[in-house]
Amino acid sequence: MAKPPTSGDADSRRRERRVGQDVADPPAVRRAAILLDLPDLVCLGGVLTRQLRHSGRRLEDATHVDRFNRGFVRYVLTYRRDMRPRMMATLASSTCPVVYVRTRRQARAFVDRVAVLGHVPI
């Protein structure tokens, strides 16, 4: 079984650089932006569920740091108030179409529709 690349491997550095470049690209060069805009308590419930589901599991990646703490919970609970306005302003200034998904049911229906069509319905 192949060993996962460490942070010093050339492949890992290339992958990190590629991800960084993808994130740095402005939304205007994308085909569509999809904003998963769930309520704070739904997001926190999802985080807590994943935390409980994976608690006690041994992590294969020694560099993984579990950052579930008071600061992270505060970030999740204040995201809509603090970060969402900036995200909305960025999306409003972009030229790409924006798909807003506000519930888990809408998210499931959207993913199912994309799977059937083979592309993002705009």
Task: Summarize this entry quickly.
The protein is mainly alpha-helical. The protein has helices at 10-24, 40-54, 70-82, 84-93, 104-117, and strands at 33-36, 98-101.
Can you put this structure into words, describing what you see?
The chain is mainly alpha-helical. Helix content is 55%, strand content 7%. It contains 5 helices and 2 strands. The protein has helices spanning 10-24, 40-54, 70-82, 84-93, 104-117, and strands at 33-36, 98-101. The protein has a two-stranded parallel ribbon with strand order 1-2. Helix 2 runs antiparallel to helix 3. The chain is globular and about 40 Å long. The model is unreliable at 1-7 and 12-29 (pLDDT under 50).
Which SSEs are present, and which pair or pack?
Elements: H1 10-24, E1 33-36, H2 40-54, H3 70-82, H4 84-93, E2 98-101, H5 104-117
Parallel strand pairs: 1-2
Helix pairs in contact: 2-3
| Strand order in the sheet with the most strands | 1-2
Q: Separation of termini?
A: 42 Å
The coarse overall form would be globular
Order of helices and strands: HEHHHEH
Assembly form of the protein: single chain
Radius of gyration: 18 Å
Give the mean pLDDT: 76
Low-confidence stretches: 1-7, 12-29
How much strand content do the residues show? 5-15%
Helix content: 40-55%
Query: Would you tell me the structural class of the helices and strands?
Result: mainly alpha
Largest sheet: 2 strands, parallel
Tally of strands:
2
Number of helices: 5
